[in-house]
What we know:
Layout: H1 18-33, H2 36-47, H3 52-55, E1 96-97, E2 110-111, E3 114-117, E4 123-124, H4 126-129, H5 134-137, E5 140-143, E6 145-154, E7 160-162, E8 166-175, E9 177-187, E10 197-198, E11 209-210, E12 214-218, E13 229-239, E14 248-250, E15 254-257, E16 263-265, E17 271-273
Amino acid sequence: xxxxxxxxxxxxxxxxxxxxxxxxxxxxxxxxxxxxxxxxxxxxxxxxxxxxxxxxxxxxxxxxxxxxxxxxxxxxxxxxxxxxxxxxxxxxxxxxxxxxxxxxxxxxxxxxxxxxxxxxxxxxxxxxxxxxxxxxxxxxxxxxxxxxxxxxxxxxxxxxxxxxxxxxxxxxxxxxxxxxxxxxxxxxxxxxxxxxxxxxxxxxxxxxxxxxxxxxxxxxxxxxxxxxxxxxxxxxxxxxxxxxxxxxxxxxxxxxxxxxxxxxxxxxxxxxxx
Length: 274
């Protein structure tokens, strides 16, 4: 749940004071790295601080993993350039979701993966999300934090999909993208044709697809010819961070091939191709 009204703005007396602002940033960074009982103990200690002598005893945060073994918390925006993606859902994700509270544990701010319930103002930290069963987990999208980016994993450049077949589009993202828009278009031999067709999910009329990282699609069986080259465009349609930049990425070209033929036989042994 977003509760950023008192954290995302400077209090009167902190605003314009560089020293107090630095202390505020250090405090947020410290509580963001502590978990469970450690964070609770630290907050209790903060409430009882009454002297400069006590301030000198502020505990230091545990040393982070070695940089040699620690990947960045987010990847840079990329499309079909072949750049290797970063696993933003790994244990090394230390992105801080300032002003966001886990609605079960009460931990605030959420650190690392923020799991947002689709179409609801309800958030979980990774520890609470892991306690859900698979059916419940399917109602959430993962917001890894960091700079917003999208990378299309499937289809890859040169993929061939038969007409009428059901395929799965897959992508990875960072930032706070909770919903995307997916479009597809045809590539001619002379130019890009921007006659976009848009994917939609049954039961939704807003054109937004929850950012689950995957979406099934039936390849058109009519209106296109075998050998047609097509591509997808995925746009960040909804971001929880109002200051995040807008972005979209295009997939590599994939080819539509003739429909797969299935040979069936009846009780008399006669066969037919369908």
